[in-house]
Amino acid sequence: RYENPLYLAEEAAALDYIADGRVALGVSRGSPEEAERGWEAFGYTGSTDPRGADIARAKFDRFLDAVEGKGMVSADPTYYGDGIKLPVLPHSPGLRDHIWWGAGTRDTAEWAAEKGVNLMSSTLLTETNGEAFADLQAEQIERYRTAWKNAGHANNAPRVSVSRSIFPLVSDHDHQIFGSQAHSQDQVGRIDGLVSTFGRTYAAEPDKLVEQLRNDAAVMSADTLMLTIPNQLGVELNLNILRNFAEHVAPELGWKPNTEGPVTGYTIK
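^ thats the sequence. predicted structure below, dont judge the formating
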C-alpha cells in the first residue's frame, strides 16, 4: 500500500545484482493498519478497502511488470522516436522467480499461484474453520499448488515457505526463558478486523520438537521453514536459538548443511 511499485522494482533489481542473484523478496498487502487509510498520507489514493488490499494488489501487478522488464512509460519521441516504451532499470532477469507473496488466506494463496509467484505463509491466517492451524495452512498450500498447476506456468516448481516460532530447550537457560511456551496452543482471535487463527509456539527438548514438527502437516508440506525469533532479546540469544535448531533439530527433519557459496545455511534434502 505504501510502496511505489516502480521504485521498488528498481531497488530490488539493484540488490539482486549486488547479492549475485540470491535475493528472495517477500511482498504482501502489509501489516494491520494502525493509521486510518494511512497510505493516502503518502499520496496513494483510489482504494475502496479499509485495509488497502485492492490498491496493494494493483501495485503488485505493476511491480511484476516492471521486474519482468516490460516497458512502463512512453519514451520522449525527441530522443527515441515514436512508440518506444522504457523499462525500469536495472533489470535482473532471474528476480521474477525469486518473488514471494505473503498470503493470509486460502483464497489469496490461490491468487498468488495464478500470478506465478512463490508462497509465504506466516504464523497466522486471517480466517478460521475449526481446524488446527497446521491443517488449515496445509490446505492453503495444497490449494496453492493446485491453482499453480491449473494456471499452466512454465516454471513447475514453485516454492512454499511457512513460519514457526520454535525454541529448542537444550540448556537450563533455555528452559528458564522459553519453558513457559512448552504448552502453547493454537488461538483464535481478531486482527485487522478479521477473525484469525494463530499458530502455536513450539518449545521443547529437541527430540520432542522433532516429533511435534513431523506431526505439523504444513511444515511437512512446505519447501522452506522460516524461524520467527524474538529479535528484541539480543543477537547472542538469537544465535543460540538458531544454533540449537540447526544442530539438534534440523538434521532429524531431513535438512543437511549447505556450505556451498558465500553463505552457510541449511537446505532440505
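Confidence is low (pLDDT under 50) at residues 261-269.
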